[in-house]
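Box 3.1 A note on notation
Throughout this textbook, protein chains are presented in two layers. The first layer is the amino acid sequence; the second is a token string describing backbone geometry. Keep the layers aligned when reading.
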Amino acid sequence: MEKNRPLKIYLGDLTYTTVTLATEAFPLNVGFIASYCKKLFGKDVDITLFKYIEDIDRAVNENPPDILGLSNYCWSHNVSSEIFKMCKKTNPNVVTVWGGPNFPIDFPSQKKFMKEHSEVDVYVPTEGETGFSNVVKLILDLNSLDNAPMQILKQPIEGCVSRNKDSNIQYNISTIRISSLDEIPSPYQNGMMDKFFDGKLTPMLQTNRGCPFHCTFCTDGRDEVNRVNQFSIKRVQSDINYIAKHIPENTHSLHISDLNFGMYPRDIDICEELAKIQQNYNYPKYIKCTTGKNQKDKIIKAIKKLNNSLRVTMSVQSLDPEVLSNIRRDNISVEHMLALYPALKEADLQTTSEVILGLPGETFENHIQTLRDLVKARMDEIVVHTCMLLDGSEMGLPEERKKWDMKTKFRVLQRDFAELSNGKKAIEYEEVIVGSNTMTFEEYIELRILAFVIFVTNQGIVFDAILKFLREQNLDVFDLYYQMFVNRKNAQLETQQVIEQFKNATIDELWDSPHELLENFQKDSEYQKLLNGEAGTNVIYHYKAVVISESMDHWTEHVINSAKLLLEKTNVYDDKLKNQFESVANYCRGLSHNVLGQDRLDTNPTYDFEYDIPSWLTPKNNKKLDNFKLDSKIKISFELDDDQFKMVQDNIDVYGHSRIGKSKTLKMLPNQKLWRRPLITSNHTTYLCWDDEPERT
């Protein structure tokens, strides 16, 4: 086939939409590659970007490209493989290029990978711009596109791993990185991202690439990506402004893909630009990103400017020194992280701490101690992830698996499944550690239940009053969560049921092999379970959504009753403290009531209070509740304002009203926008409890 037209290139970073939108970020990664290629080759290339599976499925069948490039992450691996196979059938001359971090780092495993994926001609293992453009250059230099794969694979391609005529893998320089990132034209400012401002997807911003840390569980812990390269401040500011000017009214979030945002001095300038945008455009209301692992004081200074739209992430993973050493994470100052709590609260910033269950050397006891220490450090949210074994990570190497005697299972990745036009069901899965030479499977399950109790209860704002009251009585808040965990059979029936459902789902989601998992869900009856939410969910987020949307009042009573049991064991729980605790309990009942129901604007609980709970809860207050006794009772109504209602509803409209949709909605909301606000009503005047000026009603 002679070349008498521009080279047709399809690039995709795919997301599933079967039950709801699975990954909501703009396909910025392939946008960068497209922009770089367009800069180099101009009119010689015709590039189309894809995000939605149904669009690329139709395109490769009806109008196949000359080059098909797809990103490879654990959440898009199998669907990309199937799309490659479909494209090879419609155009045998197509050159297929895969890229991304989901690729083994040891030579034997790379060889096995390429053998298993014969539908892939070339793999770009690190940053894609240079490697992919080298493939494009080779194809443009051909006289004919007939049998293009065999023509370009006669020799290694710089920045790529490929397969020669004898099916052996070949490469010379497999990792090429661009140090001055402004060499890559902005896919926002050249219009390539415009079609993705569709009211469903969330814009993504990248200000730098690389990570200075070497965590063994992470694909970004490799030495090849240790150096951090940056886009210029001017470039970042231009992209921020472009996004703000094109954002649809129903999109409230922004993703920042940096691995350690806020850790560098220049991030303060970026936050200042974002703050200006927030003031001028009322966007973004929620910024999703991973904040840096060191230099937290700089991070606080940076994100203080962002109006509570961004949480500080304390990704400790474990607080046990031996475990941290095992995962090459002992260069991160955990003590410095946790010592910043006073400054965080002074700045009124919300915090999230991430923990990984199942790391090498972890035991039931040291994991419990990690959780206890994080609760003591007053993290607003503690998220415990099951340890994934990723291709491309050091922990995934065969020798690491053997060293720690890792017991692994496989589970469907939440929301990541679809039936393609060829009749095949594409289903993504992950491999997770559920036991080792230091932790049994039974201990893993119990720790998952405890993690669920903490995740639902310790999420900032909603139960802050109870937590503060317990601390005033010198009680360890972790004991509240542990009491809820061990005493769960004495909770109300609805709470018992949801915890038992969570436990069963945690066990039932695990499979012994990928083959067994995939074979099972190819059956129509089993695939239907994925469609209706009986399987294939993120279990801990799913059941958190069940609690908040369906049984939050019952959960709140379990919190209150467990706290009361702890207080009754002390010698100081007299009538005065009982009366104080009842005020505290009612305050939490009001905040937590019906925040996701369709009738949520019409069900506003009201309580009488003898204590000024809102003033007592202010971050700068160090006095005990006893000092906030009122001269006369006040009536507080707990309500949702129009902005809260709209932000929640816009997300539910995108992700759906099902349990799965509400689970996704919760991930996209800042915590401050979820819970009810206390309003004092007196003489037909309503006062927001933390405002100085009243609002007439």
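The longest helix spans residues 575-592. Residues 690-697 have pLDDT under 50 and may be disordered.
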